[in-house]
Amino acid sequence: MMEKRLFKGIGEEISTLGFGLMRLPLKSSSSRDIDFEMGRRMVDRAIEAGVNYFDTAWIYHEGASELFAGEAMSRHPRGSYHLATKMPVWELASRGDMERVFSEQLRKCRVDCFDFYLLHNIGGDTYDMALKYDVYEFLNKKKKEGYIRFLGFSVHDGPELLEKIANNWKWDFAQIQLNYIDWEALDARRQYEILESRGIPVVVMEPVRGGALANLGHEAEGILKRADPAASQASWAMRYAASLPGVITVLSGMSNPEQLEDNLKTMTNFRPLSDAERATLDEAAKIYRASGTIPCTACRYCMDCPSGVDIPRVFSIYNHYRMVLSSNPGIAGIVFRNNYRTMSDIQRADSCVSCGNCVDLCPQGINIPGFMKEIAEFAAAR
After folding, report:
1. Hey, what's the torsion of the CAs at 315, 319, 321, 323, to 10 degrees?
2. CA pair distance 167, 293, nearest whole angstrom
3. Helices (DSSP H) in 145-227: which residue ranges?
4. What is the per-residue pLDDT for 326?
5. Residue 25 and residue 256 in contact, taking contact as beta carbons nearer than 8 Å
6. What is the mean pLDDT of residues 31-49?
7. Would you say residue 382 has pLDDT above 90?
8. How far apart are CA 364 and CA 195, in angstroms?
9. Residues near 230 by beta carbon (within 8 Å), at least 6 away in sequence
10. How far apart are CA 223 and CA 8, in angstroms?
């Protein structure tokens, strides 16, 4: 049976596995178009297995994710799922834009109200804009009018800002990036503790760090396989997040049926991590940290690049090289060259002109132009 949890203030059972509609299956590797047919089948299978939390947003799949949510979810009884979406504060040029965006989201998602609604990615300039346009007050009014059932926020920032947001307004829940690497690397521990101490339930995003923790490299993978030969690397990351008290649901952006089935297996008859398993995961994490990968989660918030660089793909190819290097140095350079050549000239790192547009958009705070310069020099030497 799918693990479900009941929280005071939420008052309904929520599946511990949440379906993130951010990395839906695509029609082809070279396309950004959603494969609606496969996506619908995955949604159907998830609901059949007991998943009842689905998360979308205005920006996901360049605006197509909410349309997919409306098309795929409306085929099921409204009471069989909870739908979450978010207010894109960076899109606002006036207070009137909030009503326009919100109404458009209701239309695209084909619902009369949202079960869960968030201020999206509040931090830095977006926090200032939320104050300027009284975004919380607008959404709280929508909640009182019955268009929102539970109001929350998502944040990709430090504990200091999260604490300010948590103190400024009254929240039903919050969404943070949390996984066994970012527990220390991005101080997710402190963010979680701030929310836990205030009794604010947590929705976890990026539990597998955009897929990176499903491919730790040969040595780290071996440690996990020796401890549990039948468990996938991703399942360890999912269990880590779901084992924390106060977590409502753990979102996974699933791109194919195999990922869905693996997550369903993990969250059905769920087993929290034991102390011994935590020690094993810590050992694998130390090896992964030493690999020198770039902490990109392929969220694509940085896209489209004005110069045409495919930023997430460049990082993915470089990170794959780092993983191969840790297990088979002899062929790592060949693997990098072969993968890098699959990109067009304009998509490669040397097309970056360091305009900096991507830097403020990156939730991970990655120095994208700096890494692009490094990777371009690295590629030129191969």
Report:
1. -170
2. 35
3. 159-168, 182-185, 188-197, 218-227
4. 62
5. yes
6. 95
7. no
8. 20
9. none
10. 39
pLDDT category of residue 194 using cuts at 50, 70 and 90: very high
CA distance 204 to 263: 14
What one-character-per-residue DSSP string does 140-156 give?
HHHHHTTSEEEEEEEE-
Q: What values do phi and psi take at 336, rounded to 5?
A: -60, -50
Under 8 Å between Cβ of 118 and 153 = yes
Query: 4-289 in CATH: which number?
Result: 3.20.20.100
Tokens 């990709």 sit on residue: 156
Cβ atoms of residues 256 and 325 within 8 Å: no
Nearest to 189 by CA among 227, 162, 216: 162
Q: In angstroms, rounded to a whole number, what is the distance separating the alpha carbons of residues 348 and 337? A: 12
Query: Does the model's pTM come out above 0.85?
Result: yes
Rounded Cα gap, residues 203 and 152, in angstroms: 10
Q: What is the pLDDT of residues 120-165, one digit of tens each?
A: 999 878 899 999 999 999 999 999 999 999 999 999 888 999 999 9
Nearest Cα to 113, choosing from 138, 84, 91, 137?
A: 84
pLDDT at position 29 is 75
Structure tokens belonging to residue 285: 């994490």
DSSP secondary structure letters along 21-68:
TTS--BSSTT--SB-HHHHHHHHHHHHHTT--EEE--TTGGGGHHHHH
Question: Of residues 343 and 41, which shows the higher confidence score?
Answer: 41
Per residue in 252-278, pLDDT tens?
999 999 999 999 999 999 999 999 999
| 123 close to 162: Cβ distance less than 8 angstroms | no
What is the three-class DSSP state of 116?
A: strand
Q: How far apart are alpha carbons 362 and 358 in whole angstroms?
A: 6
For 64, residues 6+ apart whose C-beta sits below 8 A from its C-beta are 33, 34
Q: How many residues does the chain have?
A: 382
Residue ranges covered by each domain of the chain: 4-289, 311-380
Residue 325 has pLDDT above 80, yes or no: no
Query: CB count, 10 Å around CB of 115?
Result: 20
Report the C-alpha gap between 237 and 300 in whole angstroms. 22
Q: 328: which DSSP letter? A: -
Largest interatomic CA distance in the chain: 63
For residues 330 and 351, give the distance between their C-alpha atoms in angstroms, rounded to a whole number: 28
